[in-house]
Amino acid sequence: MPIQSTTDISDERRLLTLASGEVVEIRFEDDSVAVYAGGEEVGRLSFRQIEEPEDTYYHMTHAFIEGGGGAYKRQGIGTEAIRLFLECTGGPITFSDDDGIQRDDGSHLTGDAPGFVASIKAKLARGEL
Hints:
There is one protein chain. With 129 residues, the chain is α+β, with helices and mostly antiparallel strands. The chain contains two helices and seven strands, in the order E-E-E-E-E-E-H-E-H. The protein has a single domain, classed as 3-Layer(aba) Sandwich (Aminopeptidase), CATH 3.40.630.30. 20% of the residues lie in helices and 40% in strands. A seven-stranded mixed beta sheet has the order 1-2-3-4-5-6-7, covered by helices on one side.
């Protein structure tokens, strides 16, 4: 069930109406975007800001939308969370490779993350985000 509609509440908050009619909120919070359903956090995408002499960017360290027994996966919520993060920070963002290496910062890809990251990278390359 994809997102049916999106409503901006503020520059840092957005309500998403799912095809089922349920409303979830995504909220920019420091270096992350949290996902809430029924007032409870059901997911979060976290980033680490990296400052280099000629560039500043954000690297995704954690991503999960596991709440509700996984009922909020594959509905476009993660994509909207990335979109909100980019709008709030100006990006750019990077992701770890799907190489099986477990990283100390948590940025290794597990579960559904390899497919999600591949999808986000493709959308970024097409200018959809």
